[in-house]
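TICKET: design request
STATUS: open
ATTACHED STRUCTURE:
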């Protein structure tokens, strides 16, 4: 049995050597997490696709029912659609899909571009800025707040609570943020019910109040919280890693500068090269299941690693090279696969594309302000993202 790399601080700075070592040992491998818990880690591309559609459960409540944790996460955070199995998940996803339409997302593109231009336009030529703090962070949270109808005066609080939710290892901070965020969203739901508008949240309230296949009050709150948090955390990470990848590959960056129409097509390769979701959300095997010839014992947690699968040389030749012309880049698993594939994938892709287009147009001399090996990465198994990205404008 292999030891887990997740406790090694070096893993968070550069996960890919550890992923390659795990994949070489076996693309589906049993690892020891803490000496007491054994997990199955999936690092191969074909194996990850199979695992995404295997009879695995996302019901964390069932898994942890006999494992007291001493935690006090708010139920709206602990029991979201991400922690549901069919048929409950199928019903909830269908109801959200009714409100989160492609037309609604396309309608946001002018707003996203205007916001990106506004944020970048505040940078002074010759200055140094933190691209995470000044662009990658505020843009996605502002967009999802706009989509849900969160008042502008409350958006800084939303971003702060959301950041706290991903404070790996700080359980008190995480639990406190879950209650603050859920309490705020419960109040906002009541405000929208009294004064409806054209926001996505008002549409979900309509589904709760009028639709034959209604959302319960708890489901409405958990969906609102999930959309708010999931709608920007990974996009912030994707913007930061995409910009960093381009700054570290000047030939590819130069290609986009001379061919800005290629930006949309480049997003898939950037997401493949450094996936914002490094390890997919929690899954476990209720019963013994076979994955690619490896037996996963019943009760075992299963970590599907899109970040590793997207660097599998069996699928992507020379996977550690950024190649914006890669023919099969759109096959990446950055948004997952199967029934749990990210509903917000079109919005996230649009935000990354638009931000890169605006940066190419407005900041032609953008470059790193510190050596890449001095950059600080988030200590999160789930999200692969930068804490800061200092750049010269």
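STATUS: resolved
RESOLUTION: sequence designed for all positions
ATTACHED SEQUENCE:
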């Amino acid at each position: 049995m292999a030891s887990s790399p997740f406790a090694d601080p070096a893993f968070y700075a550069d996960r890919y050597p550890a992923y390659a070592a795990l994949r070489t040992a076996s693309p589906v491998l049993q690892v020891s997490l803490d000496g007491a818990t054994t997990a199955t880690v999936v690092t191969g591309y074909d194996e990850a696709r199979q695992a995404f559609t295997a009879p695995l459960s996302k019901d964390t409540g069932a898994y942890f029912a006999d494992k007291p944790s001493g935690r006090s996460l708010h139920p709206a955070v602990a029991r979201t659609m991400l922690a549901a199995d069919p048929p409950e998940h199928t019903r909830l996803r269908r109801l959200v899909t009714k409100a989160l339409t492609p037309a609604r997302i396309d309608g946001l593109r002018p707003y996203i571009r205007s916001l990106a231009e506004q944020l970048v336009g505040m940078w002074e030529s010759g200055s140094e800025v933190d691209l995470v703090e000044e662009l990658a962070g505020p843009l996605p949270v502002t967009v999802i707040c706009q989509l849900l109808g969160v008042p502008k005066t409350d958006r800084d609080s939303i971003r702060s609570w959301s950041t706290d939710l991903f404070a790996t290892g700080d359980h008190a901070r995480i639990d406190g943020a879950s209650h603050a965020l859920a309490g705020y969203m419960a109040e906002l739901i009541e405000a929208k019910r009294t004064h409806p508008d054209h926001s996505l949240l008002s549409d979900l309230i309509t589904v709760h109040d009028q639709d034959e296949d209604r959302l319960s009050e708890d489901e409405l709150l958990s969906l609102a919280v999930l959309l708010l948090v999931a709608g920007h955390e990974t996009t912030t990470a994707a913007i930061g890693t995409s910009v960093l990848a381009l700054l570290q590959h000047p030939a590819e960056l130069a290609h986009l500068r001379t061919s800005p129409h290629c930006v949309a097509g480049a997003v898939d390769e950037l997401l493949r090269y450094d996936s914002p979701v490094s390890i997919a959300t929690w899954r476990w095997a209720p019963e013994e299941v076979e994955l690619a010839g490896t037996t996963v014992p019943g009760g075992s947690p299963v970590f599907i690693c899109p970040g590793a699968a997207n660097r599998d040389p069996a699928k992507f030749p020379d996977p550690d090279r950024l190649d914006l012309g890669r023919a099969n880049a759109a096959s990446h698993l950055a948004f997952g696969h199967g029934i749990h594939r990210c509903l917000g994938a079109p919005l996230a892709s649009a935000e990354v594309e638009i931000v890169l287009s605006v940066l190419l147009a407005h900041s032609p001399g953008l470059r790193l302000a510190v050596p890449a090996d001095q950059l600080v990465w988030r200590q999160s198994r789930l999200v692969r993202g930068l804490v800061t990205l200092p750049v010269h404008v």
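CLOSING REMARK: The mean pLDDT is 91. The chain has one domain: 2-392.
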